[in-house]
Amino acid sequence: MPREASSAARARSPNLVLWATFSLTSLAVGGYFLAQAHTRLGVDAALGAASLVARTASFVLFGLLAEGVLLRGRGGYLTQTPARRVVVHASSAALLLASVALVVDASVFAFASYHLTTALRILFSDGPAGAARVVEAAGLPLSTVLGAGVGLVIALLAAGGVSRITRGWSARRPVPVPRRTALVGLGFAFSAVALLDAAGARVRDPYIWEREVESVPLAFSLARPPAELASFAVKVDRPDASRQRRAAEALARRGALPDVYLVIVESLRSDIVTPEIMPNFAAFSRDAWTFSHAQTTGNVTHYSWYGLLCGDYPVHFDGAKRAPGGGSVALSALRALGYRTRLFATPDTAYQRLDSVVFGAGGALLDDKYHPSAPLAAERDRAVVREVARVIAEEPAGGKLNLIALDSTHFDYAWGEGFRPPFTPYAATASIGRSYARDARARAALFNRYKSSAAWMDQLLGQLFDALRAAGKLDGAIVIVTGDHGEAFWEHGSGSHGSDLGREQLEIGFAMRLPGHAARRDDAVFSLLDVMPTILTHVGVDAAPLLPGVAAQRRVREGGMAPRAALTFQGWSTRAFRFAMTRGDRRLLFELDAPDPGVARRLTLKDVTDLDSNSLVIGAGAAPAEYQRVVRELPRVLDELPFLQL
User: Fold this and answer.
1) pTM for the complete prediction?
2) Does the pLDDT value for residue 408 go beyond 90?
3) Are the C-beta atoms of residues 532 and 330 closer than 8 Å to each other?
4) Which residues constitute the domain of residue 34?
5) Which residues on neighbouring strands pair with residue 513, listed in sequence order?
6) Count of the separate structural domains present in the chain
């Protein structure tokens, strides 16, 4: 046989070595996540494993069918010359990269609780041109980014060579897979998936099944019953903000206005504010208004800033991002009263278009912005605090809203040059290759790094407090220090933030000093949504017609803080738009049935957890009495979701 004909014959053989590699990788990665979802062996686990095998078989047989068409279509046109066989090798290289991607996906999910596809969606959430801003906002070290880029190039180059080698191995012992055989096999595999789903719908725990589908790569189901306590047909109500903005802009200017210092500390969870870790902030909190359960409005920065600075539910953020208008109604109201708004920021507010969503087109609501250019976040934080201290010392008091955003406590947790980390041993860096959920030592070392970063941040906060005291401005100003969201360290399976709606990501360090108000500690829920109404109320404005939040002063006058619910929205999710309601001693998890809330049509109550222990109270297998309690309370609960039309 001529060499050219022999090469063409080998090229027409399916690359069974790579398909076997893909199958084993899919089963191994899927089996790892199945083991996480099932705490014991039983019918549920057996059906999950069988479904994994049937799904993997369906993918492989579909691929073999496509490969058969590619190799033998038009009489093997693509295999007849070396130049044409490049296409065949490219398909095998893609299969190899898919196998590698399954392993990488497992690491990403174990680290952040979302898949590689969601990570890519986050990366390009600001468009291709904004990918660099997203990388910076994510806190990824430059070495990690460069390493990923180099690794991708090497993988692409290696994939072509591996394709030629494995195709040669497959051709030595060819096992023909006719297209008709692959098609019939695909039909049987897909039918097996359908039958297993039909059986599972009768006997499987829907909550565990849902966890499988969300965690196992390439998982899907055809007839999975919903994991829910109740569901309702709804539509997200997007209010016309122009009316509120016109009312805000029509406010009359006033006389003396107290300065406002609103300090936003990145990723500051509530239990980190202790005398041992953050003595300056803890001392400030003792003389301030604090809450047992201060809640962020979003477990990612852009949702948190939108809820805090715009005083609006982050369910509306994506709509505002797509069609940015006049900026924050709350900031418009303060501007009409005579306030000048200044931003001193370490993070880049171009991220997620916060500059236009919050501050209006062209930053119209900003009178001044200071954003230092130092390459490291900790050094930018140092420069921001130095500049704010200078302004405090040199400028007269009154009429200024100072927004101060600090970033060192963001992943991967930093401190400035010359600072000695007090908590050791600490991790040199974080890695998605580590299993922090299982490796307690690695988890503790990373948490020590976070605590040392918080101690560095506390040192900067102490400099701010000292500058205010030295200028005699601390008692006469509104001073609020808050985290934008919390930070998790795999206490419940998820790390960092944006990954789940557990207590660690929702509850934030928060303290507020209002002139004329004594220090107090409320054993209650307080939301960042209520901060702007509280500021407006203090300067004599009724915020109720302007913003959905409720001022803390109003809640005290009306009989206490405890009945108030707080809503926190999850920043990144794949199949649904999630948010949590913290209400009394319970946290209720809700889902809208689409990642884009604007097109969602159904609201589902997923489960209920205890606020303090973060343990499931009502979910799979709920006791009838507990379930009836939830049902009785649902009308009142739904009344606290004013952005939904039932």
Assistant:
1) 0.91
2) yes
3) yes
4) 3-227
5) 479
6) 2
